[in-house]
Design goal:
With 480 residues, the chain is α/β, with parallel strands linked by helices. The protein is built from 19 helices and 14 strands.
């Protein structure tokens, strides 16, 4: 019997893979994964809304630095929540050097999310972070490690330095990773660091080092990480371009189909035999949400599969009920569509979007939104003419972006994913006049077959997804 899970639940978006979903999957014996993206903003907004159910306050009680908890409650917790139409407070955006409160809030938020996912069972829980969101990642990882996180999964970039950072922080030592700076030269200030001792005002305790699973889309990247990462790699997730969220761009010259989607070819296919020869446990991901795909992956030497789309619409996911209902109804009717949008993300990575009424997938809604950047997680550091490091986002106001050295062409079609993804989980900012930020849903190509999985159901649980994938219900139903 394998020591590893057959099913890894995908770490989807801001708050979609929240603690409730990860708890449901892990307590059922597979690997539940929380998304660590923007958790400082998520925690702040939950507290401002009165912390419904008291879950976050319950988890925060066990944070080992009580003064941080007290300050978070003092700053943000409102027992009666917000007034109708009242905007959320705005957190200071991250820069290369975070101030102490920013580090503490990030660590506290990740601690709380992992603690809730692990509550009441002794099984492993993972956390998923985006490599390209570099600045908060070390503080996020430390908070998750304080909560005893068992696995770290990272894609959307090349997380070569993360294993060494995990080793350092587990030993209570300072961790440093390189910061990708446009126009940079590798100067000393092009780095991000985190020192656990600054949280403790002295020596930091030793912590358990979680297993690290990079998410990769090519044989060359898998081989490079297995040989040249700064510390131990414990396995690999091999993700294809049918997965939701950000996708790796196609290799070679860019070509688009008639819908404007990037075309993937033979060079983008991963040779699983070569992956197996690396000698590490691995899982396949992207368009593999069926028992047949699980069996095929295991027949090729994989431990199992990572699945996102099926879990995204289950009861325990953090997606708003309204959006779940829309997607489920459209899936039953065979009217759901997913576009691999080559322009939506300010990062330049292809990003899958779901066509839904009242969302930024509609060109009219996108055109009417006033461009604003007040979360800033996807901002890109760049070397300004003055020599300092600046920060810009192709989804911010066009004039602002151009003043920072960007081009108008780079802004065309770019969407504010940070604000839209918060709206997906009912935490969207309120703008002038009381209007809410609109959502923008992402899903894998599997979504087109969700109706086949539903078989007339209008709602389902994470345990039903696991039963289906593990062959514990009628066979022959495929969602691909």
């Amino acid at each position: 019997m394998s020591l590893f899970p057959a099913i890894i639940q995908g770490g989807m978006g801001v708050g979609i893979s929240g603690w409730a979903l990860a708890h449901a999957v892990s307590s059922a014996g597979q690997l539940g994964v929380v998304s660590g993206t923007a958790l400082d903003a998520v925690l702040m907004r939950r507290l401002v809304d009165g912390d419904p159910g008291g879950h976050y306050r319950r988890a925060m009680k066990s944070f080992p630095i009580p003064s941080v908890v007290a300050e978070a409650l003092e700053r943000y917790f409102r027992p009666r929540g917000r007034e109708e139409g009242e905007p959320y407070p705005v957190l200071k955006m991250h820069k290369r050097v975070l101030d102490r409160w920013q580090e503490q809030l990030i660590s506290l938020a990740n601690f709380a999310e992992v603690t809730l996912a692990k509550e009441g069972h002794g099984r492993p829980v993972g956390i998923n972070l985006l490599t390209k969101v570099q600045i908060p990642n070390l503080a996020s990882l430390y908070g998750a490690m304080l909560a005893g996180v068992d696995y770290v999964l990272m894609g959307a970039g090349i997380p070569r330095e993360i294993p060494g950072a995990l080793d350092a922080m587990a030993g209570g030592d300072r961790a440093v990773i390189r910061l990708d700076v446009q126009g940079g030269s590798g100067a000393e200030d092009e780095s991000v660091s985190f020192d656990p001792r600054s949280c403790w005002d002295g020596e930091a305790p030793g912590l358990s080092r979680p297993r690290f699973l990079p998410i990769v889309a090519s044989n060359s990247l898998a081989t490079m990480l297995s040989r040249k990462a700064t510390g131990r790699i414990d396995g690999l997730v091999i993700e294809g371009p049918t997965a939701g969220g950000h996708n790796a761009p196609p290799r070679g010259a860019k070509q688009l189909n008639e819908r404007g989607e990037p075309l993937y070819g033979p060079r983008d296919e991963v040779d699983l035999e070569k992956i197996r020869d690396i000698g590490l446990p691995f899982w396949t991901a992207g368009g593999v949400g069926s028992p047949e795909h699980l069996q095929a992956a295991q027949a090729q030497g994989a431990e199992g599969i990572q699945v996102g789309t099926l879990f995204a619409y289950c009861r325990e996911s953090g997606l708003s009920d309204d959006l779940k209902t829309q997607v489920v109804c459209r899936s039953v009717q065979g009217e759901v569509d997913v576009l691999t949008d080559d322009r939506a993300s300010p990062t330049g990575f292809p990003f899958k979007t779901v066509f839904l009424d009242g969302s930024l997938s509609e060109s009219e809604q996108y055109g009417e939104r006033e461009r604003v950047c007040d979360l800033g997680y996807l901002r890109t550091p760049y070397r300004a003419g003055s020599g300092r490091i600046g920060y810009r986002c192709a989804s911010e106001p066009v004039g602002t972006f151009v003043k920072k050295g960007g081009s108008v062409e780079e802004t065309v079609g770019r969407k504010c994913l940070c604000n839209a993804l918060m709206s997906n989980i009912s935490l969207g900012q309120v703008r002038k006049g009381g209007g809410p930020e609109l959502p923008l849903l992402t899903s894998g190509d599997d979504l087109r077959g969700l109706g086949g999985f539903l078989r007339g159901r209008t709602a389902y649980s994470a345990s039903e997804v696991l039963d289906y994938l593990l062959g514990r219900e009628a066979a022959g139903i495929s969602v691909t």
